[in-house]
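Try this one yourself first.
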């Protein structure tokens, strides 16, 4: 597993199965929940996703769907939150409240 060398690892089920992410990481359940919710808006089969995300040291690992279309849709569902999450992994402010007039999170 990656140990704090990279900020984010995006992987596919055939490269790194979701079960490996789940057994090797401190889970980050909000990311796959958001990806599944976005998928459900597109197809009722979105609930079948095995998406997983976790943290190893200070590296965020996100397991995307195998379909290029679904992988793109899933990363688009969480991309706005990832910058703040990565900042938190690096010891930045943990405040997650978002000012509706700004595109960045408040600390």
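Now uncover the answer:
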């Amino acid at each position: 597993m990656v140990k704090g060398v990279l900020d984010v690892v995006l992987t596919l089920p055939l490269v790194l199965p979701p079960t490996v992410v789940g057994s090797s990481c401190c889970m980050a359940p909000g990311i796959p929940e958001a990806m599944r919710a976005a998928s459900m808006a597109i197809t009722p089969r979105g609930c079948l996703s095995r998406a997983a995300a976790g943290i190893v040291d200070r590296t965020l690992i996100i397991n995307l769907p195998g379909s290029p279309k679904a992988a793109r849709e899933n990363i688009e569902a969480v991309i706005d939150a990832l910058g703040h999450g990565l900042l938190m992994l690096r010891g930045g402010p943990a405040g997650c409240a978002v000012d509706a007039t700004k595109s960045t999170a408040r600390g």
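Discussion: The first helix runs from residue 18 to 24. Residues 12 and 64 are 5 Å apart (CA to CA).
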